[in-house]
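Hi Y.,

Following your request, here is the sequence exactly as I used it, all 75 residues.
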Amino acid sequence: MTKVQILTTPGCGNCARVERMLDEMKVKYEVIDIAKNPAILQKYQVMTSPGIVINEKLEFTGVPREEELRAKLKL
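Below is the corresponding structure, written out as tokens. Let me know if you'd prefer a different format.
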């Protein structure tokens, strides 16, 4: 099973867009607030939110095109 994590910051509108995209694709994901979890920030070095981690690898920062996201998720 594919593990998806969204690395967010408080009040991030683009993070909500990515969550909606994944909801529409019926993909389960975990939301991690990097402001409250600095270890994640150190691990992935995210400078723009959201960061999208798929199977422990940072695949996107910002909002990807839906086709790109589907391709990475193999949908």
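The beta strands are 4-8, 30-33, 51-54, 57-61.

Thanks again,
Q.
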